[in-house]
């Protein structure tokens, strides 16, 4: 089955990429944008969806600094 | 004294680390291929800098699962000395041998610069050749060097002398918590640092201050013919 | 052969061939070309591969010298250096890809030049880059600069090759056509080096590295050679993406294959992909090659044979080995996690035969493809009027000495390059004895204690003023930079970045520049062992601007970038540019002619028209003076040496102060020559510091006129109060580029 894993910086961890994008937007005329955070999207196909959780914990995300969210269709 | 320097696909500073280790009197150094497992005859391990596995996914994340890293983890658990430099520091954090993690620099850019690094704890097997408070001139070169650990962890590290090196005041190149440049594990046998001591072992190329770290590791280690 | 879908002459024109060239292809084949054949001819007969407008001129350049190990014709040139080693080096452009997608364009430019170096069996040891953009007040320029610098750093830093130097200019004519040239140096033991000529009929052809995708299909013709219009957004899918991690593995794999003696020939895949790599190998080896496109590992399943043959997918190499060695070659590939596949065979018939499974989808004589592209004579004609508008004035003509120096130091072309260079790893591999900003040339130590020095230079605006003299100056600047660290030239490489050569005035610029390059490199004994040509670099008119002659675009400033490599006997004795000791005397050395403000940075800031012609040089005098300086540096007689370049004498002195963290007190200069002397520009002048006796002993025109010390730069002017600047003031002005990377 196909699955998607969204990985984003943990709340409270400084996200300079998000800040850089947030700062760039007003200059382009987009105002009122806040809380920009940049993460990663991993798409994968797994035979056994119970593996997703350990895959995320072990490799795809570093739980110390990142949250992850598994999306199964 | 024989150093082993781990070589992953994408490691860049492996040969530099070997050269640096070999500058220590009586020391020799060998490369340890990531796909091998043997640490026979190795007295201390250096995990060098570079971009192991292209830094893809997350810096250091893939390298930690290599066969050699399994051996290095076992070696460290048995009390062996392990020094991680830059990408090697990132790998050791990912491997759980060191507390914390390394995040993208606040400036988001790669920064290559000679920095002043203060020896906070000179009573370690990595810094015993330094004087307490000694300031070392060592270059940094990285994009992901902002040290992070939860506040509680930082306090505990501080209390247990695990913060070994700090950037000099106003010289923090990446936004690290508490200006931290190098840390140890609780067992005090594993150290990681972002500055590159292997690039500070020759007056001609800038500084010899980094040599003291390798020399410290060799102090008290078995002599070899 | 299937001919139901034979391409037409219109297809040929769309691929960049002229109607006449298409007819020539038909004549050589004795029939109309099929799709694969036309695709391959269009690449091999492109300007990029065939140098059809420049080949005749390039033949006039000096290519032989005492140190030359490998001249033009291989992937890079090479010179012998101390300790029995060979240094391979070359500069190459990636201008149009960088204008379309600056990060990937610059990154793959670095990747491409590095492959050229290790294709010879040399380990890449250094990168220098040469960049040109429009003025930084344009947001497009700032975007291009930021991304190109990031791309260079991304590739060089990740692969572990230090970026040790380079140059950067901002000029209006590069606004829509930036230049990104990258130079690489490699070191090899001569016995390990290899050529690209395919040898040994029956030997296997092995492709290794990344899989082949639709990257840059037609890129060499469309991106690298055509003047591009307003549709570059549509070309974006054809931009190649670089993977430095893949190239790092490819590099180590290639060097291990050579170390084990497994290969008969090796070639990298660059622009024009498999087509160019394989045809060149066949041509040089005077053999033919049979390639089965079905054997090529593809990234996308449904690729057509012609796409496989022209793909510009990065990080691929092609080698020839004996059939009995294929298994061992593939096992080395496996060790480095590099995919290797035998895709063909060396055949005796001198043809390129392309198979798909069992059937032939193309067959062409190698000579026709590689050597028989029509060459064109240029029709040079000196332009009657100015080709370029005067730069916009940003400094009042009556600005005084104080304000002028600060304006110059803070001007985009002269401000400190540290904000760029800090984004590059300049120390990996442990050879870097002089980092950017520490000396005029980068210096790398060699195992025997000697050192290599390298510099890359060209001031396109001065070449625009006078293509002959401006190009002589580019070569002199390189040699001056080498002399300041104590190095003597061993060889040079060049990248000719010009506009459309079919324009008579561009043809004139090109002809004059090549004449200047040849004369200067002959005089300097710096043979040109390799290089690259990038033509059709034209500025576009503003898309929505009014149509007037001034907005019709035109050529970029002619930019013949020169890279030079030199040697010095002792790394420990390498010169540095910063003042070293308070109390040292300061001398102006070398100038036998008073410099002129024409074509200078000050003239640019004032918005002056470009002059028609620049004062020339007595090359014998220049070469002799460089020798005197070089020997003085080698003897350790000087504390510092810095050549006077853009901005003139006072800017050079300020740079010496900033690099050394020491001030200087300059004697009174005559008021009537004040501006000419301090801001005029001319090659061959140097700011030296050292003991009075050491300076006085130099057998060159010399004027001792100041003392090192203090924390300010102070200049006396006859009959007026002295002018002074604190070091902090100078440093603040010099840091003007910082905000571009904030």
Walk me through this protein's architecture.
The complex is a heterotrimer of chains A (73), B (225) and C (742). Chain A is α+β, with helices and mostly antiparallel strands and 73 residues long. Chain A is 29% helix and 27% strand. Chain A has a three-stranded antiparallel beta sheet with strand order 2-1-3, with helices on one face. The mean pLDDT of chain A is 88. The N and C termini of chain B lie close together (9 Å). The longest helix of chain B has 11 residues, at 67-77. Chain B has one domain (2-218): Class I glutamine amidotransferase (GATase) domain (Rossmann fold), CATH 3.40.50.880. In chain B, β3 (44-47), α2 and β4 form a beta-alpha-beta unit. Chain B is globular. In chain B, the strands form two sheets. A nine-stranded mixed beta sheet of chain B has the order 2-1-3-4-11-10-9-6-7, with helices on both faces. In chain B, strands 5-8 form a two-stranded antiparallel sheet. Chain B has helices at 14-22, 67-77, 87-94, 151-159, 211-218; strands spanning 2-7, 28-33, 44-47, 81-85, 101-103, 111-119, 135-142, 146-148, 163-167, 180-184, 190-193. Among the domains of chain C are: 195-370, Alpha-Beta Complex (Phosphoribosyl-aminoimidazole Synthetase, Chain A, domain 2); 585-741, PurM-like C-terminal domain (Phosphoribosyl-aminoimidazole Synthetase, Chain A, domain 2, Alpha-Beta Complex). Chain C is built from 25 helices and 28 strands. Chain C has a seven-stranded mixed beta sheet with strand order 8-10-7-11-9-12-13. A seven-stranded mixed beta sheet of chain C has the order 23-25-22-26-24-27-28. In chain C, α7 runs parallel beside α8, α8 (139-159) packs parallel to α10 and α10 packs across α13 (326-335). The model of chain C is unreliable at 219-237 and 542-551 (pLDDT under 50). Classes of the chains: A alpha+beta (73), B alpha/beta (225), C alpha+beta (742). Chains in contact: A-B, B-C. Chains B and C meet through α1 and β6 of B and α8 and α10 of C.
- Rounded Rg of chain A: 15 Å
- The run of helices and strands of chain A is EHEHE
Q: Estimate what percentage of residues of chain C fall within beta strands.
A: 15-25%
Strand order of the largest sheet of chain C: 8-10-7-11-9-12-13
Largest interface: B-C, 29 and 32 residues
Catalytic activity (chain B): N(2)-formyl-N(1)-(5-phospho-beta-D-ribosyl)glycinamide + L-glutamine + ATP + H2O = 2-formamido-N(1)-(5-O-phospho-beta-D-ribosyl)acetamidine + L-glutamate + ADP + phosphate + H(+); L-glutamine + H2O = L-glutamate + NH4(+)
Subunit structure (chain B): Part of the FGAM synthase complex composed of 1 PurL, 1 PurQ and 2 PurS subunits.
GO molecular function (chain B): ATP binding; glutaminase activity; phosphoribosylformylglycinamidine synthase activity; transferase activity
InterPro entries (chain B): Class_I_gatase-like (IPR029062), PRibForGlyAmidine_synth_PurQ (IPR010075)
């Amino acid at each position: 089955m196909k699955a998607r894993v969204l990985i984003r910086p943990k709340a409270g961890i400084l996200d300079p990429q998000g800040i850089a994008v947030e700062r760039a937007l007003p200059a382009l005329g987009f105002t009122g944008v806040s809380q920009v955070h940049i993460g990663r999207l991993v798409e994968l196909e797994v035979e056994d969806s119970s593996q997703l959780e350990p895959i995320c914990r072990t490799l795809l995300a570093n739980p110390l600094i990142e949250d992850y969210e598994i999306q199964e269709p | 004294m024989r150093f082993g320097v781990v070589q992953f696909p994408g490691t860049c500073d492996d040969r530099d680390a070997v050269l640096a280790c070999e500058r220590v009197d009586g020391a020799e150094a060998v490369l340890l291929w990531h796909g091998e497992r043997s640490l026979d005859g190795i007295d201390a391990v250096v995990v060098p800098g570079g971009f192991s596995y292209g830094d893809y996914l997350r810096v250091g994340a893939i390298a930690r699962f290599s066969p050699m890293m399994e051996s290095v983890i076992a070696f460290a658990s048995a009390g062996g000395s392990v020094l991680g430099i830059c990408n090697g520091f990132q790998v050791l954090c990912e491997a759980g041998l060191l507390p914390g993690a390394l995040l993208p620099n606040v400036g988001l850019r790669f920064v290559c610069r000679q920095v002043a690094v203060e020896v906070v704890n000179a009573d370690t097997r990595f810094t015993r050749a330094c004087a307490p408070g000694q300031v070392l001139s060592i270059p940094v070169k990285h994009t992901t060097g902002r040290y992070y650990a939860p506040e509680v962890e930082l306090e505990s590290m501080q209390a247990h002398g695990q913060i070994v090196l700090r950037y000099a005041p106003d010289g923090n190149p990446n936004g690290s918590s508490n200006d931290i440049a190098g840390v140890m594990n609780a067992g005090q046998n594993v150290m990681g640092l972002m500055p590159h001591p292997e690039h500070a072992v020759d007056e001609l190329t800038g500084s010899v201050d980094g040599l003291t770290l390798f020399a410290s590791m060799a102090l008290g280690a078995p002599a070899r013919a | 052969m299937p001919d139901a879908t034979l391409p037409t002459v219109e297809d040929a024109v769309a691929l960049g061939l002229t109607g006449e060239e298409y007819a020539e292809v038909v004549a050589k084949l004795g029939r109309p070309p099929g799709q694969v054949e036309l695709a391959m001819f269009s690449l091999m007969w492109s300007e990029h591969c065939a140098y059809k407008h420049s080949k005749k001129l390039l033949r006039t350049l000096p290519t032989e010298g005492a140190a030359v190990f490998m001249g033009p014709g291989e992937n890079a040139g090479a010179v012998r250096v101390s300790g029995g080693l060979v240094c391979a080096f070359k500069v190459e452009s990636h201008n149009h890809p960088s204008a379309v997608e600056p990060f990937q364009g610059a990154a793959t430019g670095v990747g491409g030049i590095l492959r050229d170096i290790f294709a010879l069996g040399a380990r890449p040891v250094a990168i220098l880059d040469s960049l040109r953009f429009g003025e930084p007040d344009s947001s497009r320029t700032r975007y291009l600069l930021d991304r190109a610098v990031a791309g260079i750093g991304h590739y060089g830093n990740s692969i572990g090759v230090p970026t040790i130097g380079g140059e950067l200019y901002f000029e209006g004519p590069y606004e829509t056509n930036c230049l990104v040239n990258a130079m690489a140096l490699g070191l090899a033991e001569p016995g390990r080096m290899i050529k690209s000529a395919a040898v040994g009929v029956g030997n296997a052809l092995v492709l290794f590295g990344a899989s082949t995708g639709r990257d840059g299909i037609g890129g060499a013709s469309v991106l690298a050679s055509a003047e591009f219009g307003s549709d570059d957004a549509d070309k974006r899918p054809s931009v190649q993406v670089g993977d430095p991690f893949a190239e790092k593995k490819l590099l180590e794999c290639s060097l291990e294959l050579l170390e084990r003696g497994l290969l008969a020939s090796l070639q990298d895949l660059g622009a024009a992909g498999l087509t160019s790599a394989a045809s060149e190998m066949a041509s040089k080896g005077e053999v033919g090659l049979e390639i089965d496109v079905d054997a090529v590992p593809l990234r996308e399943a449904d690729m057509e044979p012609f796409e496989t043959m022209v793909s510009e997918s990065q990080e691929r190499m092609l080698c020839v080995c004996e059939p009995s060695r294929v298994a061992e070659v593939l096992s080395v590939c496996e060790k480095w996690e590099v995919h290797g596949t035998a895709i063909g065979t060396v055949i005796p018939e001198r043809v390129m035969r392309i198979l798909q499974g069992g059937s032939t989808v193309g067959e062409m004589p190698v000579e026709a493809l590689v050597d028989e592209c029509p060459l064109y004579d240029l029709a040079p004609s000196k332009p009657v009027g100015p080709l370029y508008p005067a730069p916009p004035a940003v400094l009042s003509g009556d600005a005084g000495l104080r304000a002028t120096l600060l304006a110059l130091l803070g001007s985009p072309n002269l401000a400190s390059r540290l904000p760029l260079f800090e984004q590059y790893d300049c120390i990996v591999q442990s050879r870097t004895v002089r980092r950017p900003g520490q000396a005029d040339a980068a210096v790398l130590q060699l195992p025997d204690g000697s050192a290599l020095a390298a510099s890359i230079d060209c001031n396109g605006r001065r070449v625009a003023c006078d293509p002959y003299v401006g190009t002589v100056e580019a070569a002199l600047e390189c040699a001056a930079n080498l002399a300041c660290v104590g190095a003597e030239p061993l060889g040079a490489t060049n990248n000719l970045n010009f506009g459309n050569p079919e324009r008579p005035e561009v043809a004139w610029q090109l002809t004059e520049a090549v004449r200047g390059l040849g004369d200067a490199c002959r005089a300097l004994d710096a043979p040109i062992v390799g290089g690259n040509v990038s033509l059709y670099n034209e500025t576009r008119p503003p898309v929505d601007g009014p149509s007037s002659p001034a907005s019709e675009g035109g050529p970029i400033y002619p930019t013949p970038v020169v890279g030079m490599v030199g040697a010095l006997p002792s790394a420990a004795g390498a010169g540095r540019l910063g003042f070293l000791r308070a109390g040292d005397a300061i001398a102006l050395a070398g100038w036998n002619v008073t410099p002129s403000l024409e074509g200078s940075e000050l003239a640019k800031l004032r918005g002056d028209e470009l002059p028609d012609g620049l004062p020339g040089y007595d090359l014998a005098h220049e070469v002799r003076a460089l020798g005197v300086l070089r020997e003085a540096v080698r003897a350790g007689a000087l504390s510092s040496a810095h050549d006077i370049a853009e901005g003139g004498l006072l800017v050079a002195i300020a740079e010496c102060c900033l690099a050394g963290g020491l001030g200087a007190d300059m004697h009174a200069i005559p008021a009537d020559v004040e501006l000419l002397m301090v801001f005029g520009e001319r090659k061959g002048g140097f700011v030296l510091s050292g003991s009075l006796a050491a300076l006085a002993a130099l057998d060159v025109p010399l004027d001792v006129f100041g003392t090192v010390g203090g924390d300010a730069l102070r200049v006396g002017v006859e009959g007026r109060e002295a002018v002074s600047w604190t070091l902090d003031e100078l440093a603040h002005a010099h840091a003007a580029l910082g905000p571009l990377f904030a």
